[in-house]
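Support request, priority: normal
Reporter: lab tech (M.K.)
Component: structure prediction queue

Hi team, I submitted a job for Antitoxin SocA-like Panacea domain-containing protein from Sphingobium fuliginis yesterday, and the status page still shows it as pending. I've pasted the exact input below so you can check whether something in the sequence is tripping the parser. The sequence length should be 166 residues. Please let me know if I need to resubmit or if it's stuck on your end.
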Amino acid sequence: MYDARAIANFMLDYADERRVALTNMAVLKHIYFAHGWHLAACGKPLISNRIEAWQYGPVIRAVYDCFKEFDARPITSRAYLTDWETGEVVAARADFGVDTIALLKATLDYYSGFGAYELSELTHMPGGPWDQVWNAGDGKVRLNMEISNQAIHDYFIKEAKSASIQ
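Reply from support: The job had stalled in the queue. We restarted it manually and it finished. Here are the results:
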């Protein structure tokens, strides 16, 4: 599992190579989709961070906090974290395997065709993981509502099966 900020930085670097601008909302959705497809393909999480249900879809707070200053503007910096061994603040990076790199690139290649709000709509599908948490039975919205990896896994497995049937 990886810190989602390292995934965000990889996505931002790759988006720059492809001349694709990513906003905070877009990068969060790209990470969510990569995480979902990774869960479906590998049966284990891509990121170690928790995913929360917020108004505009799934959010990884650590990533959101790094880029919230950009609001709806394209992100032009990278996510940083503290290296606990040295105490230095460094850009979040990870040594991704070949399969992870391929998944991250494929995710960005596919989903970069959608705008940030379209990506948000994709995460709001009725019965999907976000919908199950956000629209829970009692109708109350709570802060920090976690979307479980199991719910994400089950949804993306279902999506993969329905895509392979068509």
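Strands lie at 51-54, 57-59, 80-82, 89-91, 145-147. Residues 4-165 form one domain. Let us know if anything else looks off. Ticket resolved.
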